TrEMBL record:
<keyword id="KW-0411">Iron-sulfur</keyword>
<protein>
    <submittedName>
        <fullName>TIGR04053 family radical SAM/SPASM domain-containing protein</fullName>
    </submittedName>
</protein>
<keyword id="KW-0004">4Fe-4S</keyword>
<dbReference type="InterPro" id="IPR017200">
    <property type="entry name" value="PqqE-like"/>
</dbReference>
<dbReference type="InterPro" id="IPR007197">
    <property type="entry name" value="rSAM"/>
</dbReference>
<dbReference type="GO" id="GO:0003824">
    <property type="term" value="F:catalytic activity"/>
</dbReference>
<keyword id="KW-0408">Iron</keyword>
<dbReference type="InterPro" id="IPR006638">
    <property type="entry name" value="Elp3/MiaA/NifB-like_rSAM"/>
</dbReference>
<feature type="domain" description="Radical SAM core">
    <location>
        <begin position="6"/>
        <end position="217"/>
    </location>
</feature>
<dbReference type="GO" id="GO:0046872">
    <property type="term" value="F:metal ion binding"/>
</dbReference>
<dbReference type="InterPro" id="IPR013785">
    <property type="entry name" value="Aldolase_TIM"/>
</dbReference>
<dbReference type="Pfam" id="PF04055">
    <property type="entry name" value="Radical_SAM"/>
</dbReference>
<keyword id="KW-0479">Metal-binding</keyword>
<dbReference type="GO" id="GO:0051539">
    <property type="term" value="F:4 iron, 4 sulfur cluster binding"/>
</dbReference>
<keyword id="KW-0949">S-adenosyl-L-methionine</keyword>
<dbReference type="InterPro" id="IPR050377">
    <property type="entry name" value="Radical_SAM_PqqE_MftC-like"/>
</dbReference>
<dbReference type="InterPro" id="IPR058240">
    <property type="entry name" value="rSAM_sf"/>
</dbReference>
Length: 369
C-alpha cells in the first residue's frame, strides 16, 4: 500500500449519520436520535466510494456515526466498497442495533473489522459514560457475536479524567475478548466532550509510556488517536533501551495527524481533516474526495510541518510527531498551534507554553506572562 500521505490517507472516515440512541459524554457529533434530512444518499455514498477507490487498492474506510447501523443501506454500502477493493470497517454504537443477524449480513458483505467502544471496565462505569443503562452488556454481546460471524473486533477507549483509572482493567478486557486492536483516543474537547476533564500533559506522557509497555506484552495491536506525541514517547524510550529498529519504524509508519494521513467525510458531505477538527475543505457533492484531500489548501497546509507554530514549530520531533492539530484547533482556533497535551519543551525554546499562561524565559526557566 502507498504510504505517501500527500497522495492518500491511511484512514478515511465516513460519518454515515449523526443519529444515535446513546448520549455519550464525549460525543464529538453531539448526536441525537433523529437522522438529518440532508445526509448523503445511498447513490451519493456509492459515488463517494467510487471516488475513494481512486486512492488505490486496499484503502481503509471506516463507516461511523452517530450509529451507522441506524441506516438500512449499510450492508449494501459495505458490499459495494468491498467490490471496489476498499477495506470496509464499521464503528457501531453499543446498542441493540448490533444484532447477530445484522453482523452475519455484514460479514457476508465483506466487512473487514468492527470497532466497539469500551470506556469502563464495569457496567456501571461504562454505562455512566455512555449515558445508557445496558450499553456495556450490549457491547460485550456485540463483540462476541462479531467474532462468531468471523469479523475481527477492535476496541476503542477514550482517555480523560473520568476513564483514567479504568485503563488497566479495560486492557484486561481487551485481551479476554480476543480483540485484534486496542485504539486509545485522547480526548479532544469538542461537542459534548467539552464537558469532560482532560488529563494533564505529564499524565498523558505517563499513560503513553504505559501503553508502549502494553504494546510489547499483549497479543493485540495498539494504536493511539489524537495523540501523535506517543511516537515521540516511544522514540525517546527506544533510544534509552535496546528496542528494535523495526518497532520504531512501525510507530513512525502508522502515525498520522488530522489532514496528513487522515480525512473525514461528514454526514452531509463536507470533508474535514478530522472529525475533531471541524474546518471544511469543501464537499464531496461538488468535488471528488481525492481532489479535496490532495489539493485543498487546508489539507496541504496541515501536511507541511514547517507551518507549525510555538514549541511544536521548533520541536526536533515535529516530523515524527506533529502534535494533535485537532486539539490545537479546539484550544486556540489555529490548527498550526502547539498541542496543549504535550509536556515536551525543546532545548533552547523561548516562548509560550500551550498548557498554561506561562512561558519559557531566555534563561530556560518558566515564568508568568
Amino acid at each position: 500500500m502507498d504510504l505517501d500521505t500527500a497522495n492518500r490517507p491511511l484512514v478515511l472516515i465516513w460519518e454515515l449519520t449523526q443519529a444515535c440512541g446513546l448520549a455519550c459524554d464525549h460525543c464529538r457529533a453531539d448526536a441525537r436520535p433523529g437522522r438529518h434530512p440532508d445526509e448523503l444518499s445511498t447513490e451519493e455514498g456509492k459515488a463517494l466510494l467510487e471516488d475513494t477507490a481512486g486512492f488505490g487498492d486496499g484503502q481503509l474506510v471506516v463507516l461511523s456515526g452517530g450509529d451507522p447501523l441506524v441506516r438500512d443501506d449499510v450492508e449494501e454500502l459495505v458490499a459495494y466498497g468491498t467490490d471496489l477493493g476498499l477495506r470496509m470497517t464499521i464503528t457501531p454504537s453499543g446498542t441493540r442495533s448490533v444484532t447477530a443477524d445484522r453482523l452475519d449480513r455484514l460479514a457476508d458483505a465483506g466487512l473487514a473489522r468492527m470497532a466497539i467502544s469500551l470506556d469502563g471496565a464495569t457496567p456501571a462505569a461504562h454505562d455512566a459514560f455512555r449515558g445508557e443503562r445496558g450499553s456495556f452488556d450490549e457491547t460485550i454481546r456485540a463483540a462476541r457475536d462479531a467474532r462468531d460471524a468471523g469479523i475481527p473486533v477492535q476496541v476503542n477507549t477514550t482517555v480523560c479524567r473520568e476513564t483514567l483509572g479504568q485503563l488497566p482493567a479495560i486492557r484486561a478486557l481487551v485481551r479476554e475478548m480476543g480483540a485484534v486492536m486496542w485504539s486509545v483516543f485522547f480526548l479532544v474537547p469538542i461537542g459534548r466532550g467539552r464537558l469532560l476533564e482532560s488529563i494533564d500533559p505529564a499524565e498523558a506522557d505517563a499513560v503513553m509510556a504505559w501503553l508502549d509497555d502494553v504494546s510489547e506484552r499483549e497479543p493485540f495491536g495498539l494504536k493511539t488517536t489524537e495523540a501523535p506525541q506517543y511516537r515521540r514517547v516511544v522514540a525517546q524510550r527506544a533510544s534509552r533501551t535496546t528496542r528494535s529498529e523495526n518497532r520504531t519504524n512501525v510507530e513512525r509508519r502508522t502515525g498520522i495527524v488530522a489532514g496528513d494521513g487522515f480525512a473525514f467525510v461528514g454526514h452531509t458531505g463536507d470533508v474535514f481533516p478530522s472529525g475533531f477538527l471541524p474546518s471544511s475543505a469543501g464537499s464531496v457533492r461538488d468535488r471528488s474526495i481525492t481532489e479535496l484531500y490532495r489539493r485543498s489548501p487546508l489539507f496541504r497546509s496541515l501536511r507541511n510541518r514547517d507551518r507549525l507554530e510555538g514549541k511544536c514549530g521548533v520541536c526536533p520531533y515535529r516530523q515524527l510527531c506533529g502534535g494533535s492539530r485537532s486539539r490545537a484547533f479546539a484550544r486556540t482556533g489555529n490548527p498550526h498551534a502547539s498541542d496543549p497535551l504535550c509536556p515536551y519543551v525543546p532545548d533552547g525554546y523561548e516562548g509560550p507554553l500551550p498548557w498554561s499562561d506561562r512561558r519559557v524565559g531566555t534563561d530556560g526557566t518558566v515564568a508568568d506572562d
